[in-house]
User: Fold this.
Amino acid sequence: MIAVLSAIGIAFVVHGWISHDGAPSSAPAGLRERAAVAPFAGYREVRVVLADTTKRACGRFVVADTEQRREDGLRGVHDLGPYAGMLFAQPRDSRIAFTMSGVSDPLEIAWYTKDGTRVGAAHMKPCPNGANDCPLYRSPRAYRSAIEVPGGRALPTTLSPCS
Assistant:
């Protein structure tokens, strides 16, 4: 009886993971989404305020909103086109780590809560010996989304929609 109940419980958990992760996650903090353009046709994009100063620059970010897109990230991407970077939208608060496996250029990453508050950032370096020696980059706290931009570029201090 205990084994049967345990199996049923595990089945519900696995079903929840599969059904929830297959659906696109929505962008956080009230960011408005629209269809992305090449080289990310089929994705969605958001526009985020890049600076909290009197000169508020606006950046376009392609959204990795499914499990597969989050896993692929910027691997093999050498041209972001009109995009400042990639926003990884998680379906719920997460502690999933990032790696540079398959990414040839350095990246900056920042993690954000559901309301758009930044909770951490890191400079990520390409793996020295390919996928075998890749460090993991983790947020200091649970996050709902993350943004990656090319190395040396500034990251948004908060996730605020452009007007």
Remarks:
- The two ends are 58 Å apart (CA to CA).
